[in-house]
Amino acid sequence: MLNYVIRRLFYMVPIIFCVMVITFFLFFGLVNVETMARTQLPPRASQAAIENWLHQRHYDKPLYLNMPGVQRYQAGQPFYDSLFFANIYDLATFNFGDSLATNRHIVTMFKEGAIPSLLVTAPAFFLSLVLAVSFSLFLVYVRASKLDAVGTIFCVMLMSIPVIVYVIICQWVLGNLLRYFPAYGFSLHGFDAARFLALPIAVLILNELGSDTRLYRAIFLEEVRADYVRTASAKGLSPQVALFKHVLKNGMINIITLTVAALPTLILGTLVLEDFFGIPGLGSLSLTSIRTTDYTVVRAVTYAGSLLYLLGLLLTDICYALVDPRIKLK
Length: 330
Description:
By secondary structure, this protein is an all-alpha fold. The protein folds into two domains: about 1-90, no CATH class; about 110-325, Orthogonal Bundle (MetI-like fold), CATH 1.10.3720. Helices cover about 70% and strands about 0% of the residues. Helix 5 (about 105-140) crosses helix 13.
């Protein structure tokens, strides 16, 4: 397995390079650096102030190559002394620089926001997964019955309600009227942390439970109709044993694939939820950066999300081998 992991890491290098190039084109190729400066400086900033702002952030270099005839050509400097090569080097070394809006180091901002985001998304992710798998297995066990119909309708109802409705109801009823939990804010001090985290975690679970249960139910139903399950039942294996020993194990391969997409969200937080509940996580940081046109932070979040997704794909293949011994990593 170690050889496979090392080989996959080497395969990821050209993909990561393509991500770097696309990220550079989106944040520097489509947006002029002077326009970037004007969004951060006062409306009537002079050209000298703009040039000084660009020089402080090393944005006063040619865009792609330092060659005669190009804009901002610097004589006596090598051809690779450009924004493109500097951006590739910075992303490869995780040197994201400073925020345009706050002048704080972006890595420090990421470290501060990662803990609040993980405290919300990690419990919600695992609880939602356990509840959805358990509920879907129950619906498969009682399939074609009234309980199955009621459970399916309940899942459709959960899917039909937008997440903002869950936020408003939880904040208004549980936070403001009943005052069971704080409706807004965040704390890391003992029991207060659990009280502040309860509502956003509950909202995330409610938002995912309906769709995940419906999807997992369809996966397990397909496994139930497979020949190996009918053969096991014909040999006298009880439905409960067949469901948990065979159907669950084989269905988990598809579920693992589906949960990979949640990995970037798990680390980077949720944009809307953190903003509504006042959680200073990476999701709130991303949304604030978009509002303030803080290009450096948005670029760093985009690049980090791409890396997390690639690592998730690698983790998925490893989990395949752990769940199903028939799969060999070669």
